[in-house]
Amino acid sequence: MDALLLEYYQFKGLFEKLPNLINEKFEYDDSLLLTLLSFKTSPLFYSKKDKYDLYTKFNSNKFNDFIIECAISLSINNDYEKLLFLYGMIISDTTINYLRQYLEQIVPEYPINEAINMIDSIIADKKEINIKESLLDKYPEAFNYYTYMDKLVHRPLVRIFSFFGSTNYFKRAYKKMKKFYKSKTKKKIFKIEKNETKYSNTYSTKIFNKDKNEFTLDDKIYKFEFNDLMDFINDKIYKKINALNAYLFDNYKDNFIKEFNILDDKKI
């Protein structure tokens, strides 16, 4: 559904590559990483009739514009809690973007959310994790919406999505998300069917793409296996994070403009 387990390990891997001068500024635990990574998916839990339709908007190209606005806000008033939050948004956005493109071509017979859940099942098997247990049993402080998160996203939400009510909206969404992950029996989430929210006992080996069938990412043709896809995605993430850091800490804008596809007339 959201590749949360996969993204968690990507986040952990990111810290191994960050400069020590940045890394030592962060304070986090596993619960917090899961919380930050869940932001993009959180509107899914808000309401059956979400008049704001943020989940659809978050899964459009405009989410990249939203990330840019958050980065501009941080460049004015940098804060390491907010920066870590922004890292989480970049990881979740980049990962889901490329996973969707890949899975829709490699395993088109499965609904996309069910296929993404298979990815987390594969990761769970590899890490010997019982993915069907309640995440709140292991990470009791996960899925809380913090004040600093709202301070980072409020104005960008207004600018990009014309959405003003962030505090109450995301507190409600996170509360419902916490309840969902507390349960060991995953139920249907509004428009997403139950088989797309739960983790099945099996998964399609076609996901590994051992035959190296061709697929397209961003209008370019590739034919590598799933592990190579993850290397590809992680490389994209690291380039974006490095470009963001250069922009925030060194006022070096060129790579930031390149990696986030910022238009020439955009003031940053």
Q: What count of helical segments does DSSP give? A: 12
Structural class: mainly alpha
Strand order of the largest sheet: 1-2
Q: How many strand elements?
A: 2
Average pLDDT figure: 90
Shape: globular
Radius of gyration: 18 Å
Low-pLDDT runs: none
* H-E order: HHHHHHHHHHEEHH
Helix content, binned percent: 55-70%
Q: Assess the beta-strand content as a share of residues.
A: under 5%
Distance between the termini: 34 Å
Largest sheet: 2 strands, antiparallel
Itemize the secondary structure elements and their pairings.
Blueprint: H1 4-15, H2 20-23, H3 30-37, H4 54-58, H5 62-76, H6 80-106, H7 112-127, H8 135-138, H9 147-161, H10 166-182, E1 215-217, E2 220-222, H11 226-250, H12 254-259
Antiparallel strand pairs: 1-2
Would you mind describing this structure in some detail?
It is a single chain. By secondary structure, the chain is mainly alpha-helical. The chain is built from twelve helices and two strands; from the N terminus they run ααααααααααββαα. It has a two-stranded antiparallel sheet with strand order 1-2. β1 and β2 form a beta hairpin. α5 (62-76) runs antiparallel to α6 (80-106). 32% of the residues are buried. The mean pLDDT is 90.
Task: Characterize this entry briefly.
The chain has 268 residues and is mainly α. The protein is built from twelve helices and two strands.
List keywords for this structure.
268 residues; mainly alpha; 2% strand
